[in-house]
Amino acid sequence: VAPGLMSAMESVDGAVRTLPSIGRLSRGLLFGGVHGRVGLSPSSRLLPPAPPSQENVDSQKTTFLLRKQWTLYSVTPLYRFSDTHLKDYARLLSAFIAAEKQKGLAVEIGVELGIKVAISSLPDLRGSDRDQAAILVQLSSRSPASPKNSEEKVIWSGWFCSVSGDDFSENVPEDFTCLPLFLANGAESYTSIVGSWFQKTFDCCFRRLAISPLNLSWMAAMWTGCKVDKTASAMELVFSVPHLPQPLDISYAIHPEDAKALWDTVQKTPGEITQEEVDVFMDCLYSHFHRHFKIRLSATKLVKVSTAIASAHCDGIIKFLQSQYLTGVLMLLTELAISQIQ
Amino acid sequence: MQRRQTPKQPLQVHRKKQTDLSAWRKGGRIDPEKSVQNHQSPNNQKNDSKQDSLEQALSYFEKVQDRVSLKKNNVLQKHLTTVESIALQRGLPPEGFDVLLNVALSGKLSDTVNTRLLKSLIPASVIPETSVVSSVSWLCVSKCSSNIQLLFLRWLITVFDFIDHKERLHALYGFFFSFLQDEKMCPYVCHLLYLLTRKENVKPFRIRRLLDLQAKMGMQSHLQALLSLYKLFCPELVTITLPGKTKTYFKDSEGPWKATINTVRQRKQENSLVSQPLFLGTAQPQSRKRKWNTQLIIPASSTNKNNLEEDREKQRVDFYGTNESFPVEQLQTFSQLLQNIHHLEFPSQMGSVLTNPLLLHYMNCIKDESIYLRLYYWMGQTLQEECTWYVADNKQYEEFKDFLETVYKAECFLQEGFSSCEEFLYKSLPLWDGFCCRSQILRLVSWIPLSSFSEMKSHLYDPLAQLFFTSSLYFKCSVLESLKELLQNWLNWHIIHLDSESDSQAHSLGVYTDAASRHCCRNTTLSGLVNVVAELIDFVGWISTVALRLENNPTFLLYFILDFYETVCDMYLRYNLPLLIMPPAGVFYPALLSMDSVSLNQLCYIMYRYRTNLVAAKENELSKKKILQFKFSSQTYQEYNQYIIAMVGCLWTSSAFQKDIHPQGLCMDDELLKKTTVQEFKTSFNIVYHPAMMGYAVLFLQQAWPDDTTFNFSLIKGKKWNWYLEYLYAQGLKGLKVFIESSINRVSQASHSKAGNMQA
């Protein structure tokens, strides 16, 4: 069952491949995927329901989330958060940002400052009505040159969401709001300020959400099976070879139709994926690669998966590419975030 | 003794000076709380002498009259150095500022001295407002040089937050404002005014004055700062446009004091164990550069500002004094807690309760699940994020260790384990090397909450056993110690909740339903509890047996094992738990045949307590006053009897080898024993010949027959046997005493007759 593959191998210069949080990642491995008290990761997952037709998802409202790099965080439930106060929160957060920017000087709440904060709700981004609506935080700046009426430029955005996280949120008392997944795009310094404000105000904890190689292979399998209308780009898996004096990355690109064909032979029950199927799928890819290059990828570490649906890096960075599969990807990420905070 | 005192300082005078530390300050109001803070230091003696010399220095500076030259005057030099060194080390008490500011600003001494004095004005706790006000009046009469004036202003800016009250200082706003005309002082005065300004201070004439100054001096950042603040308060009065972005309004705002203040405070924090509430909770030094979302820094307690926008009408009322909740920042004493307990709010970040004993008290009284849940999330995330068994960064390791220590202390304080900590242990123990933060981790183990469904085996016992068998003797003892504490914590929890149960009449159900038990115990029934406790005891029995073999029966290890069983043997009577488990033979026999009298004595005591407990249980059972859910199995009695027969046979009747009926016991064929060629093998383990006791027997013989050097042990019999017993008891073998008195039926007082083993 070896479909025609196009593969490439390259070594990447060490300077490019900086992995800032390798220590964090290994910890992520230790604790990631621990599910509930007993510590099991699910052996099978249901696929997200078939992508709803275009009218259902107001793609206008979510397209700005696509093709951006989002850094993933898990967030513990927010204490006494209420989405009826979003405007007040924006006011307070903007004062907080101003105060952080000019430490020690008096700042009045509500005064026009260099950075504008907008907090809004994204009601479309949820799995069911039982999920809390996603919350979007956007920081935009006015150019100092022409303060009035100039176009505001978004300099940082972040959003909290929960897609089919209701198993978790149902067990949490009323005072808490469960939005376990947080995604940020923009300068880390703003992430830091906004995160600190949320931590202080709603007594929650942010933690970087790393994605383990196991979960990356899940993503590879799940996303391979998804239908994409346009002629899709290649599926690419990046592996890192451990214990080498020089860092070495192996990039493995597969034609999406070939990958899909392989996956279709592996998957038994439509709508459901098991750990075993994922393993078989990856083993097939590995043995094919071994046949050509005599390299056993199973001895390396999967660090990145890119498909037409999305791309994910083990450091906890994700890029969404298809709006129709946005909630599907978020569902898996919500699950990972919940397992990190439980 | 009196003569040994140095003649210069009679004892009484010395003492008096010490007790009245602020006596030298004339007419000053002494705030006991504030003065006390300065004297809480571990090495009191050293501090007392320092305190003395500081007092002398201060009274010197108070009296100093004319211009004294520093170079020629040794006394001045000495006192100045004293003030400087104490200030650098501990900071100065509130009472010191009045004196030192007065002398420094009065111009009595040279500028060198004044500068050094001003530079050493490091507050240990607070600075009294009165001293600042009086120094402003010195400033107005300009007795001191302009350099000193500048230095004083810079000092005032730096320590602004340490001044205890600011009302009278605010009243001097006009004075400070008038200093603006001095070109040198202007930047610092601006900064000070920036700190002082309230809305009511913004007046049209002041704005005009500032604009005039700006016109005269050009765009100065300090003037802009003040103007922008004025504009913030009264936008209708300040109509000019000010540039929006300015990086720093005030240069050099920290002066030479900031670093020292931080050091002094840090040192003080280290000295006080579980940190006292900080004077300025928010200004906690954040020493190291860290990622923003690592939460190892325990947040400072601060009021939840979240409800700010809930109701603005209410908010406005709050501003005028009828505030509904008591801010946690102000909570400093236990009496404050009692007075405000009805309207105290928890801090915005629950993690801050860990270092605040008062809030822990409060937490104990409040039955609100969200409190525990907030703490649970925060602690769980922090522990996981920071648990870095393999990280080489030493500093982080120390921090993590301190954090675990803090968590442990809070658990002890609450007498309750945190469930987030339990989960952390379950997740991390399998990966633990048994070395990193050892004592912290093992102590946290002792607070693992009791849970009904037993996940202990896979989560706790298995990983612990692996480490236990492969680690040092010391580690083994530490594990046993912490498991003993774990058992005691469970038993204490049980007895407390049993009491509250019998109050609430729910006892017959045998189910703990008390709301307070929510975190200790997840719906535990009595039988569930008995099973979990039994599982722990069996586990300890097993690892003890193996460890004694591995380590070849060291007394040290045996001590920790028997210590554990001292709790086990008393569970029925002391903790009202219907469960008794005998130690395994692998523990009992090594203790019985130990080379050390300490172990033997300990074993005797334990067997005595087993007997007492079993007898009490039997009596309860026979009287049948209430239908007992649980009975000790006959196997327990049987095991006890086997052991007691072996013990009495060994120590008393010299028949151990014949009578021992325990399958793993000492029973041996006479023929076999003869082959050992040991003479008198029958008596070789009685209280005279037992290797643990022979030392006593030798000493006894020496005392009873001082002339006899043959060490004829057979002389100890009959009346002498009784004397020998008395001798042993007098040597502190209390365990042996209670054992013999309870378990050996002495038919005749005169002879060591056969002992009747007890039949429980």
From TrEMBL, chain A:
The keyword Cytoplasm does not apply. InterPro entries: CENP-L (IPR025204). Keywords: Centromere, Chromosome, Nucleus. One of its GO terms (cellular component) is chromosome, centromeric region. Transmembrane segments: none annotated. Its main location: nucleus. It is found in: Chromosome, Centromere; Nucleus. PANTHER family: CENTROMERE PROTEIN L (PTHR31740:SF2). Belongs to the CENP-L/IML3 family. This is Centromere protein L. The lineage of its organism: Eukaryota, Metazoa, Chordata, Craniata, Vertebrata. The gene is Cenpl.
